[in-house]
Amino acid sequence: MLIGTVRAARPLALFGTLLTLFFAACQQKEDLPTPASTQASTDAVGVTGTKTVCYVEVNNNNFNNIAKYSLSSGQPLFDIGIIFAANINYNTSTQKATLFFNSQVTNVLNNRATYIQPVQARGTKVLLSILGNHQGAGISNFPSQAAAQDFAQQLANAVNTYGLDGIDFDDEYADYGTNGTGQPNNSSFVYLVSALRNLLPNKIISFYFYGPASSRLSYNGVTVGSKVNYSWNAVYGTYSVPNVPGLAKANLGPAAVQITATSSATAATLATRTKTDGYGIYLTYDLPNTNSASYLSSISNVLYGKATTYMP
């Protein structure tokens, strides 16, 4: 994959709290239409207007950097922060998919008082990204509904154990067929999100619109769009509306930028398109440890009419 195009910059993942000082800001983000999907509105982040989402590569960067960014009015910039990433491993003895945390993800989860709770204290929701690990297991090839249910239970256990706000699905790096595993099938992802929604009725489920799962969004009359809250574009530096039937504009993110690679001019242009077209999500990726307020202001000035500030 090309750097600055698709998630090429992501390394392979084999691998004094900021409280509510500024949270009660007087000004809100601009209003957008109420989500048409009942399920999607259940887990709305809690602020009106375009929601800014940010993935953090915890192999390299501190997740609680999310809490350091605010609008000039004091409101948190990021509505959703995503821990990138946990993995789907494959147990060759049991022939089951297993949830795996590398040492960096384990550190974040086990030390949630340091890394996660300061972010949540500001009102930002924290999700855990889930993707393959080159072992043949992924979100698109569960061989049965029971197998999907089993993995959904592992995810629900993680959310409940670590006090997270939901799960983000990413169909990358599975290497389907490795270890004798099956190829993607039409039922797998639908079974998975349906089971997870039943287990976590009031949590957020999102879908990074990429990979085999992006073309397998309906099975036996059930759609992924009726189970997930949000979906966003996966190609950084571009504008493309995810084709997820059942999700309203307010729950879709066609703009995607890599903070460390996409130009600020492009970021501003994509923000303008997002606002003009009335979409509810703006996706950012790879928040570094250094101060990125100037770059993020190119987005927030367009979306909210306010600059971004940074508090170390």
Short description:
This protein has 312 residues and is an alpha/beta fold. It is built from 8 helices and 15 strands. Strands 1, 3, 4, 5, 6, 7, 10, 11, 12, 13 and 14 form an 11-stranded mixed beta sheet that branches. Strands 2-15 form a two-stranded antiparallel sheet. The protein has a two-stranded antiparallel sheet with strand order 8-9.
Highlighted features:
about 300 residues, disordered N terminus, TIM Barrel, alpha/beta, about 25% helix, 11-stranded mixed β-sheet, two-stranded antiparallel ribbon
β-strand number: 15
Structural class of the secondary elements?
alpha/beta
As for the number of domains, it is 1
Distance between the termini: 34 Å
Q: Beta-strand level of the residues, as a percent range?
A: 15-25%
> Could you give me the name of the CATH homologous superfamily?
Glycosidases
Based on the coordinates given, report the CATH architecture: Alpha-Beta Barrel
Average of the residue pLDDT scores: 88
Largest sheet: 11 strands, mixed
Instruction: Provide the low-confidence segments as ranges.
Output: 1-9, 11-47
Order of helices and strands: HEEEEHHHEHEHEEEEEEEHEHE
Helix content: 25-40%
> Which CATH class is shown?
Alpha Beta
User: What's the CATH topology name?
Assistant: TIM Barrel
- Total of helices: 8
The gyration radius over C-alpha positions equals 18 Å
- Characterize the overall form: globular
Family: Belongs to the glycosyl hydrolase 18 family.
Domain GH18: 50-306
Signal peptide: 1-24
GO molecular function: hydrolase activity, hydrolyzing O-glycosyl compounds
